[in-house]
Amino acid sequence: MKRRELIRDLAIGTTVLSTASLSLANCSDPATKSQTSESTGLKGNINHSVCRWCYDDMPIELLCEKSADMGIKSIDLVGEEDWPILVKYGLTSAMGNGTWMSLTDGFCNPKFHAPLVEKYMDLIPKAADNGIKNIICFSGNRTSEISDKEGLEHCAKGLESIVKTAENAGVYVVMELLNSKVDHKGYMCDHTVWGAALVDKIGSPHFKLLYDIYHMQIMEGDIIATIGKYPDYIAHYHTAGVPGRNEIDETQELFYPAIMNAIKNTGFKGYVAQEFIPKSEDAMASLKEGILICDV
Question: Is 49 helix (H, G, I), strand (E, B) or coil?
Fold first, then answer.
């Protein structure tokens, strides 16, 4: 099937999804809405999530309602104060976070270890109590005094006690791969090889990577081959269009149905979260289309 034909058929699918969502609108119990989301026609091979920050202008309860209606099971990057709201709608946060977290002041710099360890030690038991399985973390930025090799060692040392606590709580600590070329200048965990080396160094099944497809396309490309090479290192995926971080439709260079099939073929059972910034005035229509494109 040609790319244009596939996108056309997905657009038709979006209409079907919208019709199914209307039938769900009569459900008064939010949890019931989530439970009946199979009527949207999703295939069930991909567990769908969406990142909260991309829809910050929408009240969290409204985002929960609309997400549950279209078969989304999770909202990513939600802090502990909003976890009870997700439960109300039958959702989880497949990647939990804390409002205090910093992309720049991370584990690659030892001066941040003490405050980070204290805050993660507090957050992890709360995540476990609320059924949150993954908590995000960040390497932080390079400095002129810290090489990538030294930064890896620092990360492993800083995360050691946190990961042990996570193991006991049944929670996973997950470091995100970000690009340092366009969006996050100086970020250290900017290549899959470096992230995988850190996973090996820590040596715990409760420490893995968040493979952000948008970021890694910018830094290294070779997305499908990398997914096939490192399936055991990856706990979670994020999407977005390249270039621009917008919709994942035919306006951008990545072909997400093939990428999603590659993820499915690894036997991945985690979540894929939409993390694009909608350009369309109808942000929910863009989200629905993104879900359908990724629903292989």
Answer: strand
